[in-house]
Amino acid sequence: MSIHIPNILLAIPRNPVMAVGLPLALGFFSGTHSSQVANSNWYAQLASPPGRPRREVFPFAWTLLYVSMGYASHIAVKALDNTLLDVNRNALSLGIALYYAQLGLNYLWSPIFFGQHQIGLALVDSVLMTATTWYMTKLLDRPTDAKATYFLLPYCAWLGYATYLNAGTWWLNREPKNYRK
């Protein structure tokens, strides 16, 4: 039984420029407010776990990851268009549906963490996003002959790291503080 994906959600990644452009645009809109908050007293006063990179690393890393995940969606849709096997069609359909689910979770993370200062809720989002992305990568591996996996593994690794950072930040800042804005 194959999951039905609306045609518009298949049409976008068929074009590699649109496939890459969608996550880049969503990431840009989601993160526009983040740089202001990253320079705020609230963010500066947060305790961070060991291994957090300088904040300047994040836009560069996320840009590369958005390009990579977008191209993986292109590979997945092209494989779906060309597959004759029901088992591959089912895996690809579910994988593409999960791609959009993780993209939505990704879009929500910055407004939750930076906009609403809800570190715990952002952690829930991050765990769901990471699990969804890992499962999506597993589903897309065989039907794309691992091509999508090559583009998604750096994203999976980064999400594991980002979830560690989010969890550590939540843990170290569990007690409410009076932050100056």
From TrEMBL:
Membrane topology recorded in Swiss-Prot or TrEMBL: Multi-pass membrane protein
Any one of the GO CC terms: mitochondrial outer membrane
Keyword hit for RNA-binding: no
GO biological process, one term: tetrapyrrole metabolic process
Subcellular location: Membrane
Keywords: Membrane, Transmembrane, Transmembrane helix
UniProt KW Transmembrane keyword: yes
InterPro entries: TspO/MBR-related_sf (IPR038330), TspO_MBR (IPR004307)
Transmembrane region(s): 58-79, 91-109, 115-136, 148-172
Pfam families: TspO_MBR (PF03073)
Family statement: Belongs to the TspO/BZRP family.
Protein's recorded name: TspO/MBR-related protein
Organism listed in the record: Psilocybe cyanescens
